[in-house]
Amino acid sequence: FHFINMAEATTNTTNNDIYIPSVMKAAQQSGFGEVRDVLMLGENVSVPRQLSSKQILVYQK
User: Fold this and answer.
1) Running DSSP on this structure, what letter comes out for residue 47?
2) pLDDT of residue 22 exceeding 60
3) pTM of the model
C-alpha cells in the first residue's frame, strides 16, 4: 500500500510515479444504521483531491 498526501499531489502522478486515477471504487456510507442498509460500493466515485485530517486515500497495486 502507498499513502499519498493529496494536498501535495497537484497532478495525476506523484514523485514516485504513482498514477492517481480520476475515479475509483469506494465503500460509501449513506447514513446511520445497520451496515447492510447504509454501506454501498460505488464503482465510479471521484477521487478526492483534498482530504480532511481524518481521511486517508489508500492505493493498492
Assistant:
1) P
2) yes
3) 0.52
